[in-house]
Amino acid sequence: MDCLPELSYAAPKKDQFPLQSSSWRNALYDILSSVEANVEDDAIILFKTSKFVCTYDKFPKARHHLLLMCRHYSSNPSCLMNVKSMNDLTKDHLDELREFHNLAKSIVAAISRDVTKSNPFKIGYHSIPSLHPLHLHIISSDLDSPCITSRKHIVSFSSDFFVSSEELENHLESAFVDSVSVAVRVQRAQDVLDSTPLQCQYCGRAALNVPDFKRHNQTCPKATAPNNLERAHNDNGYVHFNSLLGWSSKRDLAHNDRASGRKRSRRDIELNLQKG
To answer: Which residues contact 70 (CB under 8 A, 6 or more apart)?
Structure first.
């Protein structure tokens, strides 16, 4: 993991983000287009390389919330440039994905040491993303933000619905043949999102509703102790997998895209998540 110079986290105002070009579903593409417009001192960018860019999340779900994406320009050598979601990933992407994840870890290390010590970061993906292209969440585990307004905003980062970078790497490493791609188990992921109890991630206290969760989350006496989320990724010698990740061949994907009359489409679930 390369060392970066210390980075100063200074979240921009919402009116500093690029205007929406069309559908809200293109919001990240609008940001990536802005990145390539060579705007001097672009406030929405924390850090960028020749291949990747780290931007602030316009609607942060914690005190610190960043998105790492592959830059979109024709000569970018990264094989992640045309990846829309985890479902497009194969074992061939693994080396580039490790570089992507290591940059995220370097960014976390480069943010103020006091911040990361008292408030560990999580690095990973929503199993059912509401936006494309592939984007990696770099988020502090406090989940303390005025942008949290629904139960799904909390559970999507505090349950197995959130696939850690390590879990995705381990899944790709376990591929039994090179011709398969990641396939998120969509209905199972939606069930996790719908059924996971709303409770404090530090002490396990059940919350009555979102306002109750937020009040307790700011005052929980165990909030300053290393939390279960951090410990789960620091178990020496333990390989973590996420049960929401499966496999699909390209032939299966083409068949599923053509199939009609499905009980619930992935797009329906994505739209439901966004509304929440």
So the answer is: 51, 52, 53, 76, 78, 80, 81, 83, 100, 133, 134
Cis? peptide before 129, omega within 30° of 0: no
> In the Cβ-directed half-sphere of 63, how many Cα atoms lie within 13 Å?
14
Q: What is the pLDDT of residue 205?
A: 96
Residues 6+ apart with CB under 8 A from 57: 65, 66, 67, 137, 139
Q: Which residues have CB under 8 Å from 191's CB, separation 6+?
A: none
Chain mean position to CA 136: 4
- Burial 102-137, CB ≥16 within 10 A → b, else e: ebbebbbbbbeeeeeeebbbbbbbbbbbbbbbbbbb
- What SS3 class is residue 238? coil
Residue 54 CA to residue 47 CA, distance in Å, equals 5
**CA-to-CA distance for 142 and 59, rounded, in angstroms?**
15
- In this predicted structure, the answer to whether residue 254 has a pLDDT above a threshold of 90 is no
pLDDT class of 276 with cuts at 50, 70, 90? very low
Distance between CA 113 and CA 6 in Å, rounded?
A: 9
